[in-house]
Amino acid sequence: AQRVTQPEKLLSVFKGAPVELKCNYSYSGSPELFWYVQYSRQRLQLLLRHISRESIKGFTADLNKGETSFHLKKPFAQEEDSAMYYCALSEGQAGTALIFGKGTTLSVSS
Amino acid sequence: ETGVTQSPTHLIKTRGQQVTLRCSSQSGHNTVSWYQQALGQGPQFIFQYYREEENGRGNFPPRFSGLQFPNYSSELNVNALELDDSALYLCASSLRGEQYFGPGTRLTVT
Fold this sequence. Notes:
The complex is a heterodimer of chains A (about 110) and B (about 110). Chain A is mostly beta strands. In chain A, about 0% of the residues lie in helices and about 45% in strands. In chain A, strands 2, 5, 6, 9, 10 and 11 form a six-stranded mixed beta sheet that branches. In chain A, strands 3-8-7 form a three-stranded antiparallel beta sheet, with no helix packed on it. In chain A, strand 9 (about 85-90) and strand 10 (about 100) form a beta hairpin. The model of chain A has no long low-confidence stretch (mean pLDDT about 90). By secondary structure, chain B is mainly β. Chain B is about 0% helix and about 55% strand. Chain B has strands spanning about 5, 10-15, 20-25, 30-35, 45-50, 55, 65-70, 75-80, 85-95, 100, 105-110. In chain B, the strands form two sheets. In chain B, strands 2, 4, 5, 6, 9, 10 and 11 form a seven-stranded mixed beta sheet that branches. In chain B, strands 1-3-8-7 form a four-stranded antiparallel beta sheet, with no helix packed on it. The interface between A and B is medium-sized, with 21 and 26 residues.
């Protein structure tokens, strides 16, 4: 069965430190992978998707099919990065259902 | 461009009652998905509608039903409410594979 695992419930780092939010998935086909972010009192919003290969707000994520991982990285964390981050996959067809992990809270302190 | 809106913001119902939640899609988006987010969990896919037809369903019982209208707005109906139905219900509209979420409706069942 398709599954997304985010092993860390909470990740606390200092401003300027590197960040890596882990995401592993279980899927037999070729999924599309996404990272969504939810800032305090805001709605869930798309941060990035693997097919676009973009860097958004300094974040990048590389799809590793061998390790079935899609970790989110940023070299230097900022306080405004504090939020809840969700990794999600869809079945490779545009617009199909998203399967979410349980989320990781990132807390960046000065 | 108007984003996804949902109504009501929150409501309280009694076990056994029925509830209808509403969603207005982002302009031009012809696909709408509904998710249930329990406390401390990631969103869980309920179902999706594409051009007024159900286009996929998650592991939810038939008492969860939906509609999509010609203007692509949508309703989620839940019959015979149970205490475990208490959650945040999210609607997302999509175009070309990217889903845009509404702010959610917080449902409390007592």
